[in-house]
Amino acid sequence: MLTKRIIPCLDIDKGRVVKGKSFVNLKDAGDPQKLSQFYNNEGADELVFLDITASHEKRDIIIKVVEKVSSEVFIPLTVGGGIKNIENISELLNAGADKVSINTSGFENPQLIADSSKRFGSQCIVLAIDAKKIGSSWNVFTYGGREDTKFDVIDWAEKCVKLGAGEILLTSMDNDGQKEGYDLELLKLVSKRVSVPVIASGGAGTVDHMYDAVKKGKADAVLAASVFHYGEIKVRDVKEFLKSKGIPVRL
Amino acid sequence: MTKDPKVGIVDHNYANIHSVKKALDFLGCKSLIIHDPKELEFLDGIVLPGVGAFDSAMKRLNEVGFTEKIKEIAKRGIPIIGVCMGMQLLFKKSQEGSLEGLGLIDGEVTKIDVGLEKLKIPHIGWNKTHKNRKSVLMENVNDREYFYYVHGFKCEPTDKSIISSHTVYGEEICSSIETENIFATQFHPEKSGIKGLEIYKNFINGL
Known about the structure:
The complex is a heterodimer of chains A (about 250) and B (about 210).
Chain A: E1 5-13, E2 16-17, H1 32-42, E3 47-51, H2 58-70, E4 77-80, H3 86-95, E5 99-102, H4 104-108, H5 111-120, E6 125-134, E7 137-142, E8 147-152, H6 153-163, E9 167-172, H7 184-193, E10 198-201, H8 207-215, E11 221-224, H9 226-229, H10 235-244
Parallel strand pairs in A: 1-3, 1-11, 3-4, 4-5, 5-6, 6-9, 9-10, 10-11
Antiparallel strand pairs in A: 1-2, 6-7, 7-8
Helix pairs in contact in A: 2-3, 8-10
Chain B: E1 6-10, H1 17-26, E2 30-34, E3 45-48, H2 54-64, H3 66-75, E4 80-83, H4 85-89, E5 91-94, E6 105-111, E7 123-131, E8 145-151, E9 153-157, E10 163-169, E11 171-179, E12 182-185, H5 193-205
Parallel strand pairs in B: 1-2, 1-3, 3-4, 4-12, 5-6
Antiparallel strand pairs in B: 6-9, 7-8, 7-10, 10-11, 11-12
C-alpha cells in the first residue's frame, strides 16, 4: 500500500533555518543539517527547503546547504524559492536536490515548467501554488502571496500538469499560520481534478487536521512547518495517529 | 568480495547521478561519474541510474556510445545495477518510447494499470515492498520494508523467477530483479533512508 507522506518544511534564510528556535533536543535548531537529520530520524518521508533569502548572492548559500544535507540525509529533498531558469534547477540537482518547486517564475514563464520537466523529468518539478479564496473560487497569487494574478487555481493546476509538473504543492494563504486546519474544500477540488499527487500546505495545527487533509481533502501528502519546528507535533505522532485511523504510513 | 571496489555511475544526462554518488560516498565506496564509455573499462561494478523519459535516456546512451559498451561489459560478467528508469533501460522495449532498450533483460516495460482504483500516475512515494525469494540485494532488509518509488511505467520480465521483490499499486509491480550479474530496483535506494543504503551496500559487497 502506498503510504501518505509527512513532509516538514524548512524556511531557510541566508543558510539558516528560521522559526526553529525553541527546539528542545537540538543545540542548534537553526542549522539545516542538524534539523534535517532530526526530522529524518523522526521518520519524515521527505523534506522541503524554502529559500527565503532576499539578497542576490543567495544561490550559493542554498546550494551549500543542499550539498551538506544531501550528503547525510537519504530521503527526497525538494528545494524552492527564487528558481528562475533551467540553470538554477541544474545547480540544485547537482548539489543533491531531488526536486525543485516552482512558483512565481512558472507563472510568469510557463515554458519553464515545460522545458524543465522535459529536461529533468516530471518527477523533478513540483508546482507550488499559493491560493487565496476570492468569492467562491480561488486565485493564484505570486511573489510570496503579494500579487493576485486573477488566474483560477484549478485552471492553473490543470494547465501545469499538462505542461509537465509532477506534483502540486498547494498552499492555502487564508489558512496558513492560522493552525485551524487545511483548506479541505480547495484540496479536494484540486486533488480530484489533477492526475498528479497533491501536497497539502497551510493551516496545520493538530494531528486531526492532517488526518482530515488526507481523508476529506484527498491529499497525497501533508506539509507543515511551524507545528513541527516548535515541537508542538512530532512527525512520529502524526504517523501513529494516522495509522490508528487506518491511513497507511511508513512507520 | 573485491577490496575497495571501483564503481562507475553512468551519466547520460537523464539521471540523479549526484544523489547516487552521495549514497555511495556515505558508504565509503569509491565511485566515479562516467561520462565517456571508455571509462567503463576497469570498473568492478556499474550503476545505471535514470529519471525522466525512456527515449531521452536511450537516445543519449546511443549517441555517446554507452549502449554497445554497457552490453559488452555486461557480457563479461561485470555486475550492473539499474535504478528506476535505469532498470527500465535494461529491457528490450518500453511502451513509453519507440527506441530499443539495452536488452539485457528479456521482457517489456509497460504502463502501470491502475484499473478501477483511479490511482494517481506516476506512482510517487514510499510503498511496502515484499520479498519474493532469497535476495542478494535485500539481505538484512526486512520483508515488507518501505522504499521510495517514482515511476509511471513498470518492468515485466519474461522470466518471472528473476523478480526478487514486488510492491502493489493498483496491480503487482516488479520492485527488483536479480539475475547473474544484472541487478535492478524500480525504487530509489539512494532516497529510501538507511534501508535503501543497505541495497547499495549489498551490491558493493557482492563485487
